[in-house]
Structure formats: C-alpha cells, structure tokens
C-alpha cells in the first residue's frame, strides 16, 4: 500500500528541537502520514522521494507553527466555584486558614459530590473548550474533589469521557490524597489506607495514568505521601507531587526518590530538593496562576532550577480555589513577568517539557515520529506568544494531522 501524505507548506516553524533558539526553521514545511509527522524541515529540502505520495497540500500562508500546547496540570472536573472564598482572602484570610476552617478544597468536594454527572461533564467540557481555543491539544486532568471510591471513579471517568468526545488527548491523574474528606475527620492514616486500597480498583477500570498527592501541612505528611507512592509503584504507575507549595516538606526529594515524572508548585523547594530532581530527571511544573491568585510573594527558585538543569514546565493548575484561570497563554506571560522565564523557556514549558511531565515522548516538538499535533498562529515570532495577553492569536489547530474545528 502506498502511503498517503499531506504536505503543510509555507510556514515558519518553532520546532523546539536541537540547540538552536526555538528550533527555528524559516520557510519550513511538515509532511504528515496518518496521525504522525513523517518529515519536518526547510521546504526547499523536502526529500524528492516523498513527492509522488502527497495527496493534499495545505498552504499555511507564511504563518508561525508550533507544537500543540500541553496543559500538564489541571483539576478540571469539579462542582461549584469559590468566589466567596476569594473575597475572604482579599479581606485578609489566608488560603491555609480557609482550608483549616473547613472551606477550601473540602467545600469543592461537597459541591462536586452534590453535582450530577451531566453538570460535571458539561462544566468540565466548557473549561476544556476554553483551553482548546488557545491551542491545547493534550490536557492532564486530576481527580481529588471526589475523595471516595465512587466519587473519584466518577470524576476520572468524566475526564476520560472528555478525551473521547472532544478532539483532545486527555491524561488522567488519581489525586485521592488531595484533602481529608469529612467522613475521615481525625483519621487521616485510615484515609491514606483507603486511597491506596482504591488505587488498584480505579486502575483496573483504566482510569489512572499517574498518581499525585498533596504533601503539605494542611494536607498529607511525607510519610503518608510515601505510602501512596509505594502503592503506585506496586502497580507500575508513575507518580507526581504537589510539592513545597506553602512550605518545605522535603516532598520534592521524596518524589524524586520514586523517579517522579514531575514536582509541581515548588515555591519553597530547597537546594537538596532541586539536586534530587536533577538527579532523577523530574520535571519542575511551575504554576504562575496559583502564585498570582493566592497573592503569593515567595517565588519558586527558577534560577537554581535552571542552573541545575531541571526541565521547567508551565501549567494552568486550573481549579476553583487557587487558580480559576482558563488561559494557558496567560500562564506563558506570567511565567515570564512573575517568574522571569524567557519566552522561549515558557514555550518549551507548555510543549516539550510539559510532555515529559506527563511521561510522554511522542509529542511536544515538531520532528519526524512525533504526533502531528500543531498550532498555526497569527504572530510573526514565537516570542509574541508570551507577550500578548488577553488576545488569542491561535488561528488553526491540527491534532493527529486533522484540522480541529470548535
Ligand atoms: O494545585 N494545592 C493543592 N491543590 C490545588 C488547589 C486546590 C483547591 O484549592 O481547590 C492546587 O493549587
Ligand atoms: Fe494543582
């Protein structure tokens, strides 16, 4: 059978491959076969042997093309919202104080449990569409607002359903160890036992791609986190961690010891934590939306992460408590203005490094063999993706070599 190829020509490519800035290719082209990139390069160098198999040619009009964007940390499935808590915090209440008083994550757990499947699915779908309009082609969704076997399964199944019904790749993360549900009040060790018991049941239903935990003074201890990670390891599931968001718990080093895919937040990570992440190849997922919305002032140590060679990803952390934003492009801008990433680091943070934070090696760059997920932008240079805010320059999204129409 002869291969049927599509040629996407007349574009400037930020491939994010190799060591040149942006992996830049002027007057480039992409050849796709099935859902995959067969060849990427300067149009003038298109290998002649492919020419007879090109069935369709698309002229991209000289536009900028990047890999499809990847939001590698979201809590997209939940009921209700927390605008009243936002008002309380504006009046001086801290995020921790609200959580300790039974608000915070627990209030979203109550709203999620009270919501119907249709309500949860529809609200998550609307949120996913916002992210998709800005070029997101792969999305991670965590559970963590159900906190019982049935409710965690329900939220993960809704996340899976989004991936089946939208033109979007969804990766699910089991975050049972997010907060202590009220029925386990005063029995947090018992709850962690339950989280670990539920894990193989959820995994057997095909609902879990990775396991996460919230290691913090208002959530779970390092010892409890270790127990969750041991359970994941026994199932061969990769782990990641909400680590050192509000204080240094030694979570990053603990997670790195389990070969974690990523440690996320990291405002308070220590030098030892950074060294451990560098040694294990763990990605640092920086979440400027949460930093901004919690009016945090303790910056993650970006210069030290960079110096240690820890790959940095950027994500929306979309959730109703600490980051209700739905723009990954705004996160690019904030990663630069607040965290001092370069625009190129920020773009790598929502493409190639975000892919690695999900354990995915088949996307995040424009190169032969990668998935044919890419965005066409109405900007001249990729540094503009981190520059504009409140403007969406995404013109076209191609996912699995197919045009996505929303
Ligand atoms: O990533 N830090 C823990 N989890 C979320 C916030 C969840 C919430 O407040 O509902 C986060 O910031
Ligand atoms: Fe989070």
Question: What is the topology?
Answer:
Blueprint: E1 5-14, E2 24-33, E3 36-42, E4 54-67, E5 69-71, H1 83-90, H2 95-100, H3 105-114, H4 117-133, E6 136-142, H5 149-165, E7 169-177, H6 188-204, E8 210-215, H7 222-235, E9 240-243, H8 251-257, E10 262-265, H9 271-280, E11 283-286, H10 288-293, H11 302-307, E12 312-314, H12 328-337, H13 343-349, H14 352-357, E13 374-377, E14 394-399, E15 402-403
Parallel strand pairs: 1-4, 5-6, 6-7, 7-8, 8-9, 9-10, 10-11, 11-12
Antiparallel strand pairs: 1-2, 2-3, 4-13, 13-14, 14-15
Helix pairs in contact: 4-5, 6-7, 8-9, 12-13
The structure holds N-(iminomethyl)-L-glutamic acid and fe (iii) ion.
N-(iminomethyl)-L-glutamic acid binds next to helix 3.
In words, what does this structure look like?
- This protein has 406 residues and is of the alpha/beta class.
- It has 2 domains: 5-67 and 365-403, Urease, subunit C, domain 1 (Roll); 69-357, TIM Barrel.
- It has 14 helices and 15 strands.
- An 8-stranded parallel β-sheet has the order 5-6-7-8-9-10-11-12. The chain has a 7-stranded mixed β-sheet with strand order 3-2-1-4-13-14-15, with no helix packed on it.
- β7 (169-177), α6 and β8 (210-215) form a beta-alpha-beta unit.
- The longest helix is centred in the N-terminal third of the chain and has 17 residues, at 117-133.
- It is globular, with a radius of gyration of 21 Å.
- The model has no long low-confidence stretch (mean pLDDT 97).
- The structure holds N-(iminomethyl)-L-glutamic acid (NIG) and fe (iii) ion (FE).
């Amino acid at each position: 059978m002869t291969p049927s190829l599509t040629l996407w020509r007349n574009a400037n490519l930020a491939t994010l491959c190799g060591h040149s800035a942006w992996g830049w290719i002027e007057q480039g082209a992409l050849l796709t076969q099935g859902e995959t990139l067969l060849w990427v390069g300067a149009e003038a160098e298109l290998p002649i042997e492919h020419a007879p198999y090109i069935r369709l040619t698309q002229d991209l009009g000289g536009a900028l093309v990047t890999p499809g964007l990847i939001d590698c940390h979201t809590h997209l499935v939940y009921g209700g919202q927390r605008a009243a808590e936002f008002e309380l915090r504006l009046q001086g209440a801290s995020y921790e104080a609200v959580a300790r008083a039974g608000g915070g994550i627990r209030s979203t757990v109550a709203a999620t449990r009270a919501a119907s499947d249709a309500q949860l699915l529809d609200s998550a779908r609307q949120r996913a569409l916002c992210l998709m309009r800005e070029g997101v082609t792969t999305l991670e969704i965590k559970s963590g607002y159900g906190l019982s076997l049935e409710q965690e399964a329900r939220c993960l199944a809704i996340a899976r359903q989004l991936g089946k019904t939208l033109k979007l790749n969804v990766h699910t993360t089991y975050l049972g160890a997010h907060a202590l549900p009220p029925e386990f009040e005063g029995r947090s060790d018992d709850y962690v036992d339950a989280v670990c018991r539920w894990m193989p049941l959820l995994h057997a239903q095909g609902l879990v791609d990775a396991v996460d935990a919230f290691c913090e003074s208002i959530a779970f201890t390092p010892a409890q986190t270790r127990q969750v990670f041991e359970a994941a390891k026994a199932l061969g599931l990769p782990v990641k961690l909400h680590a050192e968001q509000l204080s240094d718990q030694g979570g990053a080093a603990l997670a790195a010891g389990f070969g974690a895919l990523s440690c996320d937040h990291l405002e308070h990570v220590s030098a030892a934590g950074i060294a451990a992440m560098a040694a294990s190849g763990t990605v640092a997922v920086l979440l400027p939306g949460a930093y901004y919305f919690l009016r945090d002032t303790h910056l993650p140590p970006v210069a030290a992460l960079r110096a240690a060679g820890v790959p940095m990803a950027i994500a929306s952390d979309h959730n109703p408590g600490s980051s209700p934003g739905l723009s990954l492009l705004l996160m690019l801008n904030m990663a630069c203005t607040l965290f001092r990433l370069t625009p190129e680091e920020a773009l790598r943070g929502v493409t190639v490094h975000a892919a690695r934070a999900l354990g995915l090696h088949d996307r995040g760059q424009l190169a032969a063999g990668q998935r044919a997920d890419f965005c066409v932008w109405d900007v001249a240079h990729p540094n503009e993706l981190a520059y504009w805010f409140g403007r969406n320059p995404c013109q076209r999204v191609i996912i699995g070599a197919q045009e996505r129409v929303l």
